[in-house]
Amino acid sequence: MKNGEPESIRREEVAKNIDARRNDFLTRRREATILDALFRSIPRARWKRHSMRIHPLDLAIIVAYLLGVTALGMRFRRGQQNVTDYFLGGRTTPWWALAFSIVATETSTLTIIGTPAISYGGNLTFLQLVFGYLIGRVLIVLLLLPGYFRGEFLTAYALIEKRFGQKMRAVAASTFLITRAIAEGVRVSAIALVVSVVLGTSEKLAVVIVIALTVLYTFEGGMKAVIWTDVAQLMLYLTGSAVTFLVLLHRIPGGWSEVTQVAAAAGHKFQVLDFSWNLATKYTFWSGLIGGAFLTMASHGTDQTIVQRLLAAKSERDSRRALLASGGIVLFQFIVFLLIGVLLYVFAQHAPLLAIGERKDRILPLFVVREMPAGMAGFVLASIVAVAMSNASGALNSLAASSVLDFSKLRGQSADPARSLRLSRGMTLVWGLVLMGFGLVKWGPLLETGLTVASLPFGSLLGLFLLGTLDRRANARGALAGIIAGLAAILSVFRFTNVAFTWYVMIGATVTFVTGVVASRFSADDKSPQEEKAPA
Fold first, then answer.
1. How far apart are CA 277 and CA 271, in angstroms?
2. Each residue of 279-331: pLDDT tens digit?
3. What is the dihedral of CA 206, 209, 210, 211, to 10 degrees?
4. Segment 31-80, tens digit of pLDDT
5. What is the pLDDT of residues 218-268, one digit of tens each?
6. Residue 312 phi/psi, 5° resolution?
7. DSSP-based three-state secondary structure for 457
8. Is 318 left (phi over 0), alpha (psi -120 to 50) or beta?
9. How far apart, in whole angstroms, are the C-alpha atoms of residue 244 and residue 378?
10. How many CB atoms lie within 10 A of CB 101?
């Protein structure tokens, strides 16, 4: 017995040591599995929810960001007297802040996660689309922007009423409201998965947290709060991207020389230009420049979310400077995002991150939670949340603006400034509940498809604006026929062809414009409202 006892004790100690090492291993792997749930099924995320926690320092950084940005936005409530103050910030914002806000608004969480995945699995040809973004901005300055400053417009669709009357304004605004609400709801659903695993909550509670905090500062501070929190959030996620780039470069043995050697061995990682004419290829020189230009003309020239920032400028000159400057920032950030993808590819040759068959858009989140030091991981995760809140706040304010202003005459709302201001805040709450509802929908693997479908009407909207700007003989009946034909055409292309999405807006805009021109010639002349003073 005496000889057996020490042996049994030693066996127990060995077993305990094995269990301790196993627990220690599981503890170290805990951070590595946090964002795995982002791209797994919902039941899987729920199963892991209570066992996944990040480092306390990272969690403190994220909570501090959430509270800090909310407090910052609430500071701007003072001085609001009418809807111009609430929706356009009193037109006192400097152009450089508007440029930052434009970039923050057009950048989503999916952009930060998805863009590195493109270059990780391919090359840098996505930059061709960004070149088109720059051309589109120049065309907006030349074709659309002057029209916005020829009257006291508060929404993009007031310009449509000036040309085609109240009914067409309502059609354009309704299209915007429906598609923007769906698109932002999907984005909220996506970021809720991140927040849920970071904070250890359910996805539903995460949606409530994100939207509640965003609604709070948007409700209180209006457009000023949106713009200045956008500025802070842009600086945060650009800094987070730079930190990720530097950490990656430091972790790659051999540094930049190793990056160039591995990229050269891969044969095409630094390729930027593709001059092929295949319409099914997403990123070519032609689809980038032409398709990207049309896409930007639609998203930045007809979508209330961006146009509202252009109208918030002190003058047309400041609006022009903000839009063009935002193009330079966008080019810089996409270069950084794409280079991060190349660095991830090189890093993965030394320390694989993805298992066989795993989706490439998991590569950046996996690197952040597995390889980033404590503190830095929280900073980068906070930057991802910042982008989501920036999108949501901009959408809330623009949805409320369009609801109150584009339908006010049809509903006979009072012109009293105080009542209009209360109504505006009320609509912000209503749209917050709508986005919360869409955010609670389990979109699953249809996430990217949902975003694509939500943006399909862009072509028809752009065609409508170009019709009103370039054809003086166009009338309301022709415009309505054009927008219906354009939407039908692009839905057919989406459903029955393999044409790349980069061509969708150009196709929709062209069909809308041509149909509107022809239909206006054959329809009875409407009494054009273009000579009347356009309402706000």
1. 17
2. 888 889 999 999 999 999 998 999 888 999 999 999 999 999 999 999 999 99
3. 120
4. 333 334 333 433 333 334 333 456 788 878 888 888 888 888 777 777 66
5. 887 788 888 888 898 888 888 888 988 999 999 888 889 888 888 888 888
6. -80, -5
7. coil
8. alpha
9. 12
10. 30
Q: Which domains are present in the chain?
A: 57-440+449-522 (1.20.1730.10)
pLDDT digits (tens, 9 = 90+) for 239-248: 888 988 999 9
Rounded distance, CA 108 to CA 391, Å? Answer: 7
Tokens for 80? 């609001």
For 282, list phi and psi in degrees, rounded to 5.
-65, -45
| Rg of the chain taking only CA atoms, in angstroms | 25
State the Cα angle at 11 between 9 and 17, rounded to 5°: 105
Task: Kindly state the tokens that stand for 479.
Answer: 């415009």
Query: Is there a contact between 127 and 273 (Cβ–Cβ < 8 Å)?
Result: no
pTM for the predicted model, two decimal places:
0.81
Report d(CA 59, CA 195) in Å as an integer. 10
- Sign, CA torsion 465/466/472/474: negative
Residue type, 129: L
